[in-house]
């Protein structure tokens, strides 16, 4: 049975499209307190013009000095690893160190989980918050509760349970106002027109420090700085997510072509509008109610 809708989470209309997942300036509140900082549309556009031509380290420095309650969400992909390494070299005072948030879907590759341990060993100053599907600790428990292959039988419910709900819980419990992400334009799909700073439909600020970088630039940084990375990248993978929805790619294919191969889907749900999942949860509740009446 899906999680019930949390009080205060309404399917309010968003000024963003379902394709991009971002609002321009005004935002509808989520179930936690409103963000400490807000941007008008004009201010947001101005900031993006200014940040567009800065180096990633400069964007990170701006973020550290400008945004309260700043965290980094990461699945330990290459770009996220670059951000971790760049921050480690900035000599940030301990109170300003950016904590990491990792969403453990319980369906990651073993290589990904091994990488998490290697990153924690190398960057011992970081504080890592791990969020899993609510009330579950391993894949066996997940299967017992939601039956086999939920990602095939109800893809939206899987995204909600494994990724979106843990993300919203993390943002609420940690009082997150802004996050650093590893998204880049060169990853294609919905990310092709990505801006450096964006605001989602609940007011969460998302900073994309490496929005302008190519895969080659990221890879070169990883090599030059001896940053630990996922061993799967040496086996034909370029973008790594859950084991059941990630495949190696062929020469010349887009970087994220191995994600949800053969499907129209290009995002896992975390970067889709929250109002989309509010509507989905309402529909699930209606189906449950209708089933109860019929029985």
Model description:
The protein is 37% helix and 8% strand. With 295 residues, it is α/β, with parallel strands linked by helices. The longest helix is centred in the C-terminal third of the chain and has 21 residues, at 274-294. Strands 1-6-7-5-2-3-4 form a seven-stranded mixed sheet. Helix 3 (78-88) packs across helix 8. Helix 3 (78-88) links the parallel strand 2 and strand 3.
What labels describe this entry?
295 residues; alpha/beta; 9 helices; globular
How much of the sequence lies in strands comes to 5-15%
The whole-angstrom Rg is 19 Å
Q: What is the H/E order? A: EHHEHEHEHHHEEEHH
Mean pLDDT: 80
The coarse silhouette is globular
Count every helix, treating DSSP H or I runs of 4 or more residues as helices: 9
Record field, number of beta strands = 7
Q: Runs with pLDDT <50, length 5+? A: 1-31
In short:
The chain is an alpha/beta fold and 295 residues long. The protein has helices at 41-51, 56-66, 78-88, 110-122, 139-146, 150-153, 155-173, 215-224, 274-294, and strands spanning 22-23, 70-73, 99-103, 128-131, 178-180, 197-200, 205-207.
Describe the secondary structure blueprint for this structure.
Blueprint: E1 22-23, H1 41-51, H2 56-66, E2 70-73, H3 78-88, E3 99-103, H4 110-122, E4 128-131, H5 139-146, H6 150-153, H7 155-173, E5 178-180, E6 197-200, E7 205-207, H8 215-224, H9 274-294
Parallel strand pairs: 2-3, 2-5, 3-4, 5-7
Antiparallel strand pairs: 1-6, 6-7
Helix pairs in contact: 3-8
